[in-house]
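Retry 2 of 3 after timeout on previous attempt. Resubmitting structure tokens to design endpoint.
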């Protein structure tokens, strides 16, 4: 120590080399297994700390670009540290975040509208709530368009309503105002076919098949005709039924309030009792039933019609 100099600084002693460094390079170092206890004579190196496991765990997977910084997210392919369970970018679970597995297939009718309640949202995001702005001009314009369409289609709407009523409701009996015929036999006037009694009938003046002879009736107000009921022959009793000729084919002519006419052919069976036919017409004010052919026609017999009844709506 020089005179007048300060206190001398002592250099700390150099630590001894680890046992691995003192061993020859050719001598391998035995790895230590988990659970092994360190004895008094055992050498403890930097890789053999007490209480530490020698198994480092599975190596980290190479991320994007081949680096070993972590494992990539199966959903967004972002690199994540190996110890994380959720992705840093999208928040998906790294163990099971497979877009194609773990999600049930939606039915086709839900895929059309794009509704997926099981969709995994990105971390930090919230589902978007659709809000409708208050209509200003859209609602009044829509109402005006609907009112205009209803005004121009009022006739079609009325027909649709009437058609629904005809299909769902039961037709009611329509009583004609008066009846007349092309000709009448003595005691068998035209009104007998519209009086509601089956023991009286109408018959034309001439005998034989009576082709072209007709019955006609009118209504006080135009009606919607749906059904025609016919009782052929002189009565519903079998003996009286066969005593006169019976109509086999009829032509029903409907006259509406504007004078237009529609016709429909009706074929009857040769049997006593009532027979019902679908005869449809709107705004019918007059009906004519014309005989085209007959059963049992002969020069000594007349074609007889016991009853004609009409059903529909007024």
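Retry 2 succeeded. Sequence:
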């Amino acid at each position: 120590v020089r005179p007048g100099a300060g206190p001398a600084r002592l250099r700390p002693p150099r630590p001894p080399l680890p046992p691995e460094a003192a061993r020859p390079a050719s001598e391998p170092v035995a790895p230590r297994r988990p659970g092994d206890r360190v004895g008094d004579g055992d050498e403890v190196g930097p890789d053999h700390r007490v209480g530490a496991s020698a198994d480092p765990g599975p190596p980290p997977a190479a991320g994007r670009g081949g680096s070993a910084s972590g494992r990539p997210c199966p959903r967004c392919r972002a690199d994540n540290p190996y110890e994380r369970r959720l992705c840093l970018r999208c928040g998906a679970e790294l163990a099971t975040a497979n877009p194609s597995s773990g999600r049930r297939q939606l039915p086709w009718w839900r895929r059309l509208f794009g509704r997926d309640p099981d969709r995994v949202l990105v971390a930090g995001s919230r589902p978007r709530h659709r809000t409708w702005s208050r209509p200003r001009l859209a609602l009044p314009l829509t109402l005006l368009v609907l009112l205009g369409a209803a005004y121009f289609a009022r006739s079609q709407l009325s027909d649709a309503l009437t058609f629904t009523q005809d299909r769902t409701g039961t037709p009611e009996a329509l009583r004609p105002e008066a009846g007349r015929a092309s000709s009448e036999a003595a005691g068998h006037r035209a009104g007998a076919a519209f009086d509601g009694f089956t023991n009286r009938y109408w018959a034309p003046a001439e005998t034989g098949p009576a082709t072209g002879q007709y019955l006609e009736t009118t209504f006080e107000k135009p009606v919607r005709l749906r059904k025609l009921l016919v009782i052929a022959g002189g009565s519903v009793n079998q003996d009286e039924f066969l005593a006169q000729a019976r109509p086999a084919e009829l032509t029903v002519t409907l006259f509406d309030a504007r004078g237009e006419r529609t016709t429909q052919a009706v074929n009857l069976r040769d049997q006593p009792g009532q027979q019902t036919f679908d005869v449809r017409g709107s705004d019918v004010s007059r009906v004519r039933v014309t005989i085209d052919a007959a059963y049992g026609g002969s020069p000594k017999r007349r074609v007889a019609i016991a009853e004609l009844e009409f059903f529909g709506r007024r």
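Attempt log closed. The longest helix spans residues 138-152.
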